[in-house]
Amino acid sequence: NINFDGKKTSVSETFGTYIRRLRLKNNIGQRELAKQIGVAPSYLNDMEKNKRTAPRQDLIKNISNILKQI
What is the dihedral of CA 55, 61, 62, 67, to 10 degrees? Predict the structure, then answer.
């Protein structure tokens, strides 16, 4: 697995847990991130809990840009 910085992540870490870890590391709430990426907080919550598959590529890029700027 490769993260946003091009570094390898734990094989057991899913997309959702990776996003959650970055979000918490940067002290940003789910509602705030959801608003910034243009999705419902429940959608982001489901992503983080692996109840949804990884989102569209454009949404992944948007998440990456936001979490890298913080």
Answer: 110
Cβ atoms of 23 and 30 within 8 Å: the answer is: yes
Question: The pTM is what?
Answer: 0.77
What is the chain's Cα-based Rg?
11
Q: Are 48 and 16 in contact (CB under 8 A)?
A: yes
The tokens of 25 are what? 């590391």
Please tell me the total number of residues recorded for the chain in this structure.
70
For 2-20, how does the pLDDT look when each residue is reduced to its tens digit (9 = 90+)? 555 555 555 678 889 999 9
